[in-house]
Design goal:
The structure holds two protein chains of two kinds. Chain A has 14 helices and no strands. By secondary structure, chain A is mainly alpha-helical. In chain A, helix 5 packs across helix 9 and helix 6 crosses helix 9. The chains are: A mainly alpha, B mainly alpha. Chains A and B meet through helix 1, helix 6, helix 7, helix 11 and helix 12 of A and helix 5, helix 6, helix 7, helix 9 and helix 10 of B.
Chain lengths: 341, 277
């Protein structure tokens, strides 16, 4: 386990470096915005003096390196500044909207792994048969449309024409849930309100599935492609000739090597879902980061843009560390290469 | 090449892919001749015929200012295809080269290149493109720039992972032993083993670029009106669900058809290229 601890320490250190890189990238992007953010924030009726004051307050007149220094010092204290759009601390805004988005993405992530990997395994195991062709077609369709198109189609089919699921929102208005974690699926359980939990779960199915569909397809396709390659290897031939059950060969011997590339893609897909959540949220009126994110981008609200992207990126880095550790656990070649020579 | 084409056309699924992609390409190229109302790609208003369900001569219905949806979708395909080709032409060579070099050379080169890649990969793709589009003027060229900036790291990561595995293989060791140059090993020995993965990803990505570009404009951060764009059509129409369903369903299906077509071909190509290895 020592190599793994070393790997974890190394990954945490590099993640910090990457996060600093991200902050520089986002900061640079946000600072080359044409137009004066102070003027935009104060509106057309502001006096020159008010604008000058705000510019001084936001350090906008300093050199960009100095501005970045101020920014990083603030971030280190957990202060992302005031949103010029809502006039509240960016951290408070994000704390309000992020849990809804994360909940959606996490449920979609579970669907991606829980549905995508088994589909890929079955597909490879029944290669060339009807089941394989059907799964391939479905997963190909899944990756062939953006999540907002699936959101529209799923909503029309299963909320309007067949009213099985709610059209919008996270939970019915009749339930009063006090926010502890911001995750309704957790908060409802903490309150011991099973019916509210059911209601929240019922609301999240369609948006999460719309979000997960491309990931499910991606995971299934990649798993199948890798397993099909693995099936040609001699050790599978050997396992077959020993008379091991097909299921054991599929789940243990053929699947294991393809898990590594699959996990890599799942990690990256998770990042994509954090962004794609914006698309699904717009259709299902999901009260997450989407509306806030788009609003602050259109209003050139620097603090909020930088803060939002930074928090989303930090979340993603955390997931990536977990994925990397899993890969290291699974791949002896990487596991042993971490050992001091 | 001839053989590849023959195999493509022999399989019903890849044949479907070829047909779909041909339809998309032809409608983009010949939109001026196919579209019943070519002038509807711009800012035209025809309130007498607004918000009409599909009926002759508006086979896909009309939008809220009376423009023919079918004509607008044809022109939207043109924009999507140009965008896809340009983005991949830049992103793939850049991403693949960085991935190969980082994976094979190792050491500081690997560290610097992969951290740079990580920085780009650590911002969810759509969010990165959104921030770039939020800053720049929403034009087609800037849209390409934003999508390219988020695209190359995926190739780097893919090729890097393969390269790290491949460089431990015997054939690379053999090439090193006989004194082959680093450039030779990277591009002549390792690269060919990455090609099936790259091809799979590229053909899939031709569709995905169309998909991401439509996502950007869906959020109002892409190609601006009155230029027809599949994503913004869906966004505009989504407010009028379920009554005016044709406003969202047809552009949505148009995206699906194009991306699905490229994916079908991509799949078949991978099988063929994989078999030749």
């Amino acid at each position: 386990m020592i190599p793994l601890a070393r790997l974890l320490a190394k990954r945490l250190a590099t993640s910090l470096i990457v996060l600093i890189g991200v902050s520089m990238l986002i900061f640079a992007i946000a600072r080359i915005i044409p137009g004066d953010p102070a003027r935009i924030a104060l509106g057309p009726n502001a006096t020159a003096e008010q604008i000058a004051d705000l510019r001084a307050e936001l350090h906008l007149d300093d050199h960009i390196v100095v501005q970045y220094g101020h920014f990083i010092a603030d971030v280190a204290r957990g202060d992302l500044g005031i949103s010029l759009y809502t006039n509240r601390p960016v951290t408070a805004d994000i704390a309000l909207y992020l849990p809804a988005t994360l909940e959606l993405v996490l449920v979609a992530g579970v669907m991606m792994v829980g549905i995508g990997l088994p589909l890929g395994i079955w597909s490879a195991r029944w290669r060339g048969r009807a089941a394989d062709n059907i799964i391939r077609l479905i997963s190909l369709l899944g990756v062939s449309a953006p999540s907002f198109v699936w959101a529209v189609i799923l909503m029309l089919l299963f909320a309007f024409y067949l009213p099985l699921f709610p059209i919008a929102g996270r939970i019915s208005d009749t339930y009063a849930i006090s926010s502890v974690t911001g995750f309704l699926l957790v908060d409802t359980l903490l309150q011991g309100d099973i019916r509210a939990f059911g209601n929240a779960a019922w609301h999240i199915v369609l948006p999460a599935f719309a979000l997960a569909l491309s990931g499910i397809g991606q995971a299934a396709r990649l798993t199948r492609a890798n397993m099909v390659e693995t099936y040609d290897k001699p050790y599978i031939e050997m396992a077959r000739s020993y008379g091991f059950p097909a299921r054991r060969i599929a789940n243990h011997y053929a699947f294991r090597p393809s898990l590594i590339p699959s996990l890599t893609i799942i990690g990256l897909d998770f990042a994509a879902m954090l962004g794609n959540a914006f698309l699904v949220e717009a259709i299902f009126a999901w009260p997450g980061l989407s509306r806030y994110g788009v609003a602050v981008i259109l209003r050139k609200d620097l603090n909020a843009i930088v803060g939002t992207v930074l928090i989303i990126s930090a979340t993603f880095l955390l997931v990536n560390i977990i994925v990397d550790l899993l890969i290291a656990l699974l791949n002896p070649r990487i596991r042993y290469s971490q050992r001091p020579a | 090449m001839k053989r590849t084409l023959a195999i493509l056309l022999a399989n019903p699924l890849s044949l479907l892919g070829v047909v779909l992609v041909s339809v998309v390409i032809l409608s983009a190229v010949f939109a001026d001749f196919i579209a019943p109302f070519p002038e509807h790609r711009g800012a035209v208003v025809d309130f007498a015929n607004f918000n009409k369900p599909p009926e002759w001569p508006y086979i896909f219905g009309t939008d809220l200012v009376g423009r023919d949806m079918f004509s607008r979708i044809l022109y939207a395909y043109r924009i999507s295809l140009i965008l896809g080709i340009v983005v991949l032409a830049i992103a793939v060579p850049v991403g693949v080269t960085i991935g190969l070099v980082a994976g094979y050379l190792g050491g500081w080169t690997e560290y610097l290149l992969m951290r740079l890649t990580d920085v780009f990969l650590s911002v969810p793709p759509l969010v990165l493109a959104m921030s770039i589009m939020g800053v720049l003027q929403p034009t087609l060229a800037n849209g390409m720039l934003a999508v390219t900036a988020m695209w190359w790291p995926w190739y780097t990561r893919l090729v890097y992972n393969i390269t790290r595995g491949e460089k431990e293989e015997g054939y690379v060791l053999a090439a090193e032993v006989i004194g082959a140059s680093k450039a030779h090993i990277i591009f002549r020995e390792i690269l060919p083993n990455c090609v099936p993965a790259i091809i799979t990803k590229m053909t899939l990505d031709m569709g995905f670029v169309i998909l991401i570009a439509s996502s950007l404009s869906f959020l109002g951060l892409g190609v601006q009106p009155p230029t027809p764009d599949l994503g913004s059509m869906v966004a505009d129409g989504a407010k009028y669900l379920p009554d005016s369903w044709w406003l969202t369903i047809f552009p949505g299906l148009a995206i699906l058809v194009a991306v699905f077509g490229f994916n079908l071909i991509g799949d078949a190509l991978r099988d063929i290229l994989g078999a030749e290895q």
